[in-house]
Amino acid sequence: STGPKVFVVKKDTVEMRSVILGQKEKNMIIIKKGIKEEEEVVIEGQLNLSNNVKIKILK
């Protein structure tokens, strides 16, 4: 499907999800639907990812 997507962290893999975006506030965009508040979203390196690929989180 088309539209905005994000990668959600699932232990050692990622899951691609469609999201519904809300308004932009300063340097952030609100995600209205598609992820839960406590879920982690990939914010760097998304171009190298695909659905269900194994990841290693660097903090």
UniProtKB/TrEMBL annotation:
InterPro entries found in the cross-reference section: MdtA-like_C
Multidrug resistance protein MdtA-like C-terminal permuted SH3 domain segment(s): 5-45
Gene3D superfamilies listed in its UniProt record: 2.40.420.20
Identification of the protein by name: Multidrug resistance protein MdtA-like C-terminal permuted SH3 domain-containing protein
Organism field: marine sediment metagenome
Taxonomic path: unclassified sequences, metagenomes, ecological metagenomes
